[in-house]
Amino acid sequence: MKFSFWPNPAQPYAEALDLAKHVEGTGWDGIWYADHFMPNAPDTSAPWPEAWITLAAMGASVPRLRLGTLVTGNTYRHPAVLAKMAATLDHITGGRVVLGLGSGWQENEHHQYGIPFYTVSERLDHLDEACQVIRSLFTETKTDFAGKHYHLEDASLEPKPVQHPLPLLIGGGGEKRTLRITAKYANEWNVWGDVAILRQKMEVLDAHCADIGRDPSEIHRTAVALLFMSEDNAFLEQMRNADLQQPALIGTVDEISDIVQEYEDAGVDELIVPDFTLGAHRQKVETLDRFIKQVAGR
Fold first, then answer.
1. CA 117 distance to own-chain centroid
2. What CA–CA distance (Å, rounded) separates 278 from 289?
3. Which of 103, 149, 189, 222 lies 20 to 30 Å from 70, alpha-carbon distance?
4. What would the DSSP string read from start to end of 160-193?
5. pLDDT in tens, 192-232
6. Where do the structural domains in the chain lie, given as residue ranges?
7. Does 3.20.20.30 match the CATH number of domain 2-295?
């Protein structure tokens, strides 16, 4: 099982880079970055760097970790432009990029920047076409595509990515459309979830793979959950009773180890740990070190 790190995009770049260098040196496998332009909150004035520029800088400074977006909203950029960005970064990093892509969901950034938001169904239609465009540009000498939303004529993308293929990760758990798009096009998949959610979503994903005749083992499965790891039982009980809005790993080191084993037994190939709940910089480092050493056994 792989273990990767997700730094809060609101923190200064210098701190995020310091964390990236630290997790690389202590045995983590990858670093993921949220591709949003602002917080999903009434007050959007907080500093919020752009994800792909940040990953490019990190990739040039951190030589081993896999790097990816978790995830890029397809509405933000034309898929041909996004494919060019990902391929360029793959060369900068020597073949370590994962292109994480989703249909887009955060309405405030669309409204503020004048980006069309569309309906849920329309956004999923765009995502399906975008996956076809990106895969063709990555693999074909020339691409002609005449879809409802995207049109390419005799389009080239050079140089091709270093990786063959550069992994396309689809983020999301929508069982009718998103997981079917995943089955059709993705090399990797991500969803927020506890073990029960992961088992349910993977059953649906496997069924979609069976419908289209694809081997489900070809899809690398990744999961995200908040982390609350402590030896303070009162704190842990408080977190278990809190309305966290997101799946979370809550427990002592031994309890977290057992939960992570359940994720692996369920078929999760990579667990991604955000630092959103880990406190200030020094406390983050201490918790990340304890997790990678005592839980992951690195």
1. 21
2. 12
3. 149
4. PPSSTTPPEEEE---TTTHHHHHHHH-SEEEEE-
5. 999 999 999 999 999 999 999 999 999 999 999 999 999 99
6. 2-295
7. yes
